[in-house]
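Question (not urgent): is this output format expected?
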Amino acid sequence: MNMSRPAVHPVEAPPFTEGGENNNGPRVRMKEVQGMPGTPGGLGLRIYQFLFAVVSLAVMGSTSDFATATAFTYLVAAVGLQSLWSLSLALLDIYAILVRRSLRNPKVVSFFTIGDGITSTLTFASGCASAGIAVLIANDLNKCTINHCTRFETATAMAFLSWFAVSPSFLMNFWALASRQ
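Got this back:
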């Protein structure tokens, strides 16, 4: 019987040419996109998340009767968690920028994605619930004279702005997680 046998034939590597058209070198990672963790854009998003959440927390906390509605208490808890999360990741971004370290490790990106997803969902849900109660008090019950309607609406708006600043962070992290090779 005549069967073929595997054989190893050495192949010579093509010469390296600088500026050549067919330079198929090793694949290079994509540059850091602004908004990703460890970039100045990502740091800016984290600072905005933190500021809007803290303003929402401070405005809602300055009212004496926010605890009368469960939605307002939920808002305080959600933006409190959002402010802690955003502050800790802002500090991590500052560290990464100062030491020029990339935060594109798959485990780190997974952690950021899950954390951003949870905090953004909580912030959005609490903002929606608080907006519903604020509209109920202001428009349907017409009790703004005895309640702090303006403060409730301001705190709710700041919560939505905080959520709006979290969304790009979540989407960038999710995109980086989904596109890794």
